[in-house]
Amino acid sequence: MSTKTGPQRYPGASRANWYQDDFGGDPMQVNVVVLHTTEGSTLPGYGGGSSAPNLTAVPDLAARKLKWYQHFDVETSSRALVNLRGGVETNTMNVCQVELVGTCDPKTHARWKAADQEHVYWPDAPDWALRGIARFLAWMHEEHGVPLSGPKTWPAYPTSYGNGGGQRLTGAQWKGFKGVCGHMHVPENAHGDPGAIDFARIVKYAKADLDLGDDTPETATPAKPKVPAFPGRKYFVAGASNAYVLQLGKQLVKRGFGDHYRVGPSRTWGEADRLNVRDFQKSRKELRGDADGSPGPLTWRLLFS
């Protein structure tokens, strides 16, 4: 069984429509975010939670911001994807699902517009709405290591329905995928949402929030990141062995916080790493109140600054 790591509640999200107590779900190590659109203009009831995602973003048009509702922990499987018997896992694999209230269907958009019904048409979403999604993805990147990248093809609805745009991943591609995708990319599902949402702009805003620069192909000379991206807390737990542990250890030594190493840093997280991180945290007033030796995004950012 997978073990959850890092914060499970998105800061500021309401739990007024919390469904995990009723529907449980499986713990997962999340490295994928799937974006949906609700094709409605208000917060759905989701059948009392039986078809709910992890979170829903509701546009507050007057305040020009997204209001977030959380229904399941970030690393608990939710229920918004089709999962066919005998196929690949969808809801229960490694996925945090986000529903965006509004539409990606140009016909629905035209009908609502003609009726003076306020809504967000996500292929032409206002900048504040895209920035709201970007802030969530930046948080998922920092706290859970979800890559700020995704499929190249985001065809417009209704072309995106089924696999009309050739965008849907195969089962094998899905199993290996890490990053951000749409409902229209998930195998075993026919839905075409969120259509032609401006994914490139969302990623650009998320990277700007994290000071990572923009490495899209359109950028001739990408800005060099000032601080390497925090990979997520799950890489710094007992028994973990990876390149990020070694990168952290080398930086600790460089900054003068390697006293607990006997022979130097390694790829395997251990007590010496934790004690060295704790020493660094104690040296910074921003971190002293939580000097437990576990590196989070702020510890990482200050250490590499």
Question: What does this entry look like structurally?
Answer:
This protein is of the alpha/beta class. The protein folds into 2 domains: 19-210, 3-Layer(aba) Sandwich (Lysozyme-like), CATH 3.40.80.10; 233-304, Orthogonal Bundle (Muramoyl-pentapeptide Carboxypeptidase, domain 1), CATH 1.10.101. The chain has helices spanning 20-23, 46-49, 106-114, 127-144, 171-176, 199-209, 243-254, 271-283, 297-304, and strands spanning 32-37, 55-60, 65-70, 95-100, 179-182. Strands 3-2-4-1-5 form a 5-stranded mixed sheet, with helices on one face. Helix 4 (127-144) packs across helix 6. Mean pLDDT is 92; it is low at 216-222.
Key traits:
single chain, 305 residues, alpha/beta, Lysozyme-like, Muramoyl-pentapeptide Carboxypeptidase, domain 1, 5-stranded mixed beta sheet, 5 strands, N-acetylmuramoyl-L-alanine amidase
Summary, kept brief:
The protein has 9 helices and 5 strands, in the order αβαβββαααβαααα.
Q: What best-fitting shape do the alpha-carbon axes yield?
A: elongated
What percentage of amino acids are in beta strands?
5-15%
Task: State the domain count.
Answer: 2
Largest sheet, spatial ordering of strands: 3-2-4-1-5
> In CATH, what is the class of the largest domain?
Alpha Beta
Q: Sketch the major β-sheet.
A: 5 strands, mixed
Question: What do the pLDDT scores average to?
Answer: 92
Helical amount: 25-40%
Which topology of the largest domain does CATH recognise? Lysozyme-like
State the low-pLDDT regions, or none: 216-222
CATH H-level name of the largest domain... which superfamily? Answer: Peptidoglycan recognition protein-like
**CATH architecture label of the largest domain:** 3-Layer(aba) Sandwich
Secondary structural class? alpha/beta
How many DSSP-defined strands? 5
Secondary-structure element order, as H and E? HEHEEEHHHEHHHH
Task: Give the N-to-C terminal Cα separation.
Answer: 36 Å
| Quaternary state of the chains | single chain
Gyration radius, rounded: 21 Å
Helical segment count: 9
Organism: Streptomyces phyllanthi
Protein name: N-acetylmuramoyl-L-alanine amidase
InterPro entries: PG_bind_dom_phiBT1-type, PGBD-like_sf, PGBDSf
